[in-house]
Design goal:
Helices cover about 35% and strands about 30% of the residues. The protein has a six-stranded mixed β-sheet, with helices on both faces. Helix 6 packs antiparallel against helix 7, helix 6 packs parallel to helix 12 and helix 10 crosses helix 11. It is elongated. The termini are far apart. This is Lipoprotein. Pfam families: DUF58 (PF01882).
Length: about 425
Amino acid sequence: MALTGRTALLAALGSLPVGILAPSWTGMLAVNAPLSLAILCDYALAAPVRTLQFTRSGDTSVRLGDGADVQLTVTNRSRRRLRARLRDAWPPSSTQAPARQDVTVPAGERRRLGTALRPSRRGDHRAERVTVRSYGPLGLAARQGSHEVPWTVRVLPPFASRKHLPSRLARLRELDGRTSVLTRGEGTEFDSLREYVPGDDTRSIDWRATARRTTVAVRTWRPERDRRILVVLDTGRTSAGRVGDVPRLDASMDAALLLTALAARAGDRVDLLAYDRRLRAQVQGRSASDVLPAVVDALAPLEPELVETDARGLAATALARAPRRSLIVLLTGLDAAPIEEGLLPVLPQLTQRHTVLVASVADPHIARMAGARGTLDGVYEAAAATQAQAQRLRTAEQLERHGVTVVDATPDRLAPALADAYLALKAAGRL
């Protein structure tokens, strides 16, 4: 039995003359028979908690930064009217409103309660239990119990770089020959013939076609379609570092989403894997219309692991997932030690068969430190930042000497820079 604040006040007032002899609430109620009887009757008339039934409905997924609505339906199967206060327990990062709700349900009826969630973290947010306190008609006593009512809301990556997609799709249409700009390049696919105009590359003239007509004909080309792209996300310890307010892993995810959306629209096949010492997530063999939702769903619960990435295992897993020639996009850090000791020894295995692109998140604070002057601390900070930048540049040059394309950009620029690098490789016929 749970006593309410009203009961405690009445018991205290009714027990003042004998408060010294009966200091506890039990003693106070014992010397106040009418109040004790009222409490017992109120408790007996409170609707039972065990017979209540709960069901949930509503949103099962939401993007980080948006709100989700989840409904809780309470069914009162008893013969007594339910007057209750409910607490629906969600993780603190779900930021629910309201946390507690009052509800009245007549016998044999049901009521629906709404909960608004505003999650502050990616991943799966699970409702734990519903705690009910059922009051009697006088509000003097209550029954209390809990019910397990499972429900999961998956919080997806925000995909902030989506705003860059229209401009990159316009460039893709230019490369694909769907506008007046026509491209040619090594390894591109023949598209059609058109009349020569001043400024065209003379190497694109089709002499056989010209001989059959009265005007000079030139070949037009379009980038290859149905290429294979494998996005590899490094979830080791370097991905756990924060750059500004954004974890490196989240910035890499955003870049991977923009690349996936762009490549799928270009007609290329995109697979994804996340790896540190073991495979954390993968998306493989999805169609162009299904690959982006599948990648978003796979990335949602992903968190960095505080372990050193196994470069050999990563390379072996990537080669197993990409048996044919592919573009392998590795989203990882450019720290000298992990690259020199881990990636460089296994890089020839990847570059021998595939085109490799390494994308990394740069810290904009380092650039600000490099420009600091005027104080002794500022000079030391500038020296340290310059040294860090030089080391990062040397690491990138080492990768480029192995034929790797390197994209090193701040979190807000990484996604569009990676998309531009993909389009440049596609225009050059290197996919």
